[in-house]
Structure formats: C-alpha cells, structure tokens
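Question:
Now give any protein.
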Amino acid sequence: MFILTRFLSLLMFINVSVGKDLDKTPPKRLINGQNEELFDFPSLASLSKRRIGAWFHYCSAVLVSPTKLVTAAHCVRNKKIINVRVSLGMVNLFGPPNEFEQVLRVDKFDMHDGSYITNDIAVITMATPAKLNKNVKVVVLAEKDSNYVRENCTISGWGRELM
C-alpha cells in the first residue's frame, strides 16, 4: 500500500504541475495531437533514441532540476546512455529547431528496483545542466500538503509516434 501511495503521489505531481503555475487557468484540451500554445509546458522534455543513424522521439520526461529529469522506467530500461538524448525547449518534434531548443547528453539513469509495473519511475542525470530561460524551466511543484482530489489536471507529453 505504501508503494502504491508513493507512486500515485508522484503521478499527481507530474500530472498536476508539469511546467504550469498552479494558479493559472488550465489550457484548452488537446485532441488528436493538435498543438497547444508555444512553450506552454517549459519543463517538458523529449527523449530520443538513435536508430539507423537518426534520432527518433520515443518518450517524454519532466525537468525537475537543471540536471535531473523524471520519466517512466520503461523509457530507459535496457537503453544504452550513448543512444539516448534529451531535448528541451522544443515546440515541434518534426519542425526545425528553435532558438531555445537544447539537446543534452545523458550521464546516467537511476531506476526504482521494484517490480516493473508498480514502480515504473526513473531519474535521468544529464551530463551538463540545462540553460534555464522563459521557455526551459524546472517544473512547478505542488505544496507538500496540497489536495487535488476531484480537481481537473493537465497531462502533457509528446504522445507516441507510430512507425
């Protein structure tokens, strides 16, 4: 029960607070991959893997400090660090880079040692810190005793690319 409570608390922190000040009005819904406002989620990161000489997005993460990201453990399990990179400040996975985009090398992965499904969490440490600016920010965390039961939340991510 303790592990489940901790996992649900983490999910709540990720879902409720990713890159948004908690006192702002929630944005419109995303439907069928329609874009939200540019830079609306400045702590959202894209994880890319190298395949056949090119980089492909495969998972999302959230920036929790200038050198740390949180993602799902299944996103980094059995991955070689050299074949994973982190992109911050992106507004379009398939468009040209923008002036705020940063691509950083991964230094290490730390995964929870529990079972695969119930403890699907990992911390990524980057080799160099992210350059924080108005479009690349550390996630805004909820207060320790916050209660969001029956409240709406915003879930952000890049979705899944089907190939």
